[in-house]
Write a structure and sequence with these properties.
With about 180 residues, the protein is mainly alpha-helical. The chain has four helices and two strands. It is globular, with a radius of gyration of 17 Å.
Length: about 180
C-alpha cells in the first residue's frame, strides 16, 4: 500500500486529525464554508463575498478563507457563466449576477466532481486516471478563441490578477466597480 502526494506548487499539507473537532484544528480554523454543503445557501454565499466588498471578485472567490474549494479554473468558469468580469468589485456586483454566480458555483463544482476533476496539467485520481472537466471549459485557457455564449461573438482574453491568470469574455462579462 502506498500513500502518494504530488504537490508541484508546494501548497499541500498532510496531517492526521481526530474527526471530532477537525474544523477547530489550527490547520483548518478560519477556512470558509464548503460550497457544496446543504447549509451553504445564497444568503451565506453573498455574506461571505461581502466580507471583502472592495476585493476583485476573482481573488475573493479564490480566497479559501472566504469560501473553500474554488480554485483558478472554477473561478474563471463561474464568472463566465454569471457574466461578471473578473476585476469587478465584489460589493458592486448586481443581485441577479450574484445569484447567477451562486448557482454556477454549485453546478460547476458538482460538474467537476462528476467529470473526475480537471487534468489540464498533472492531476490524476487515485487510480491514476485523468479527469475530464477540462473538456467542458467555457473560459479557462480559451484565450483568443471565440466566446461560446449564445449570441455573444466576443473573443476570450487573458489577464493576470494577483499573480493568477484570469480568462474571460470582454463582451458579455460586465465590469462592476460603481
Amino acid at each position: 500500500k502506498h500513500l502518494v502526494l504530488s504537490d508541484m506548487r508546494k501548497f499541500a499539507k498532510v496531517t492526521v486529525l481526530e474527526t471530532k473537532g477537525v474544523h477547530d484544528s489550527i490547520h483548518l480554523k478560519g477556512v470558509g464554508p464548503e460550497p457544496l454543503e446543504d447549509s451553504f445557501d445564497y444568503a451565506m454565499f453573498k455574506s461571505r463575498l461581502f466580507t471583502r466588498p472592495k476585493g476583485k471578485i476573482k481573488t475573493v472567490l479564490m480566497d479559501p478563507m472566504v469560501i473553500a474549494g474554488i480554485g483558478n479554473i472554477y473561478s474563471d468558469e463561474i464568472l463566465w457563466c454569471a457574466s461578471v468580469h473578473p476585476l469587478s468589485l465584489a460589493g458592486k456586483i448586481p443581485e441577479n449576477n450574484l445569484k447567477d454566480m451562486f448557482k454556477a458555483t454549485k453546478e460547476l463544482l458538482r460538474k467537476g466532481i462528476h467529470f473526475g476533476g480537471d487534468s489540464m496539467s498533472d492531476y490524476r485520481n487515485i487510480e491514476g486516471e485523468r479527469g475530464k472537466f477540462q473538456d467542458h471549459h467555457r473560459a479557462y485557457q480559451k484565450h483568443k478563441t471565440k466566446c461560446s455564449k449564445k449570441g455573444c461573438g466576443g473573443i476570450l482574453s487573458r489577464i493576470v490578477i494577483g499573480a493568477r491568470s484570469a480568462h474571460f469574455c470582454p463582451v458579455h462579462q460586465k465590469f462592476y466597480d460603481k
